[in-house]
Specification:
The chain is of the alpha/beta class. The chain has 2 domains: about 1-60; about 65-250, P-loop containing nucleotide triphosphate hydrolases (Rossmann fold, 3-Layer(aba) Sandwich). It has helices spanning about 5-60, 65-80, 95-110, 115-120, 135-145, 155-170, 175-180, 200-215, 230-235, 240-245; strands at about 125, 150-155, 185-190, 220-225, 250. Helix 8 (about 200-215) links the parallel strand 3 and strand 4.
């Protein structure tokens, strides 16, 4: 190899070496920049996770039990209306022996309320109109709310009206029924029609509510303006009444109506 060839080879090696050094330097700079970006992203992720954790913790904090009881009681009273809003077991006017016996039966049920509700055991009061069945059920409902249970009171005719409105609004039946199957306790005031029987649609929807709750072991409390369990089965359907009766506390309110005309009424 001539001197010229040697010099050319050395020059070429020098060029290649410098290119390699330049490449390594550029690669190192690029790697450093990438690591810096990744570090910033990691810091942002940690900050977001920390913030999300604080939000989840805040949302998971238990609410004030007393505030929740008050909210549920307010909701219950809103549904039952002013006439019944002061009804309790303590202010039920039990004058006769039969009335005291039924009141005692309800008190026994309420005394074991947590286990009764956990077992899905209902409370059914039947008898002539005006005997205070709803008063007793509302008094029991107050006790359930005070223990933290979600209770929905509903006039059965209003229930049927809501179902009709749902049809007009083209709402899914499942969404409508969920309002009545979700609460720990559902209190239904007299679903028995004054004349005749329930329509096929009313009977079917009522059965679906009671059956769903029965399968979920959620008690249904009900007042019935009937003279006997046989009449209840005839008016509402034996299958529905059979589910209501299973494990339930039953009481026959057989005495004259509390409702009276005013003493000042002209005769």
């Amino acid at each position: 190899m001539t001197n010229e060839d040697q010099l050319l080879a050395q020059a070429n090696d020098t060029i290649l070496k410098r290119r390699s050094e330049t490449h390594q330097s550029e690669l190192s700079d690029a790697t450093g920049a990438l690591n810096e970006v990744l570090g910033r992203i990691g810091q942002r992720i940690k900050a977001q996770e920390s913030e999300d954790g604080r939000i989840r913790y805040a949302n998971s904090k238990p609410t004030d039990p007393n505030a929740e009881v008050k909210r549920r009681l307010t909701s219950l009273l809103k549904h039952i209306g002013r006439r019944y809003e002061h009804c309790t077991l303590d202010n039920y006017d039990a004058k006769s022996e039969k009335q005291r016996e039924v009141l005692g039966t309800v008190r026994i049920y309420v005394g074991r309320l947590e286990s009764q509700i956990a077992s899905g055991n209902g409370l059914v009061l039947f008898g002539p109109p005006g005997t205070g069945k709803d008063h007793l059920l509302i008094g029991a409902a107050r006790e359930a709310v005070s223990l933290g249970f979600a209770v929905l009171w509903c006039n059965a005719q209003d229930l049927f009206g809501a179902l009709r409105d749902a049809i007009d609004a083209d709402l899914p039946e499942s969404k409508v029924l969920a309002e009545y199957t979700a609460p720990s306790v559902l209190v239904l005031s007299d679903p028995v029609p004054q004349f005749g029987r329930l329509t096929e649609y009313q009977a079917n929807m009522l059965w679906r509510i009671v059956d769903r709750r029965y399968r979920d072991c959620k008690p249904t409390w009900m007042s019935l303006n009937v003279k006997s369990g046989g009449e209840a089965g005839e008016k509402l359907g034996t299958s529905l009444v059979d589910r209501l009766r299973d494990g339930a506390t039953y009481a026959f309110c057989d005495w004259p109506s509390y409702r009276k005309v005013s003493d000042s009424t002209a005769r």
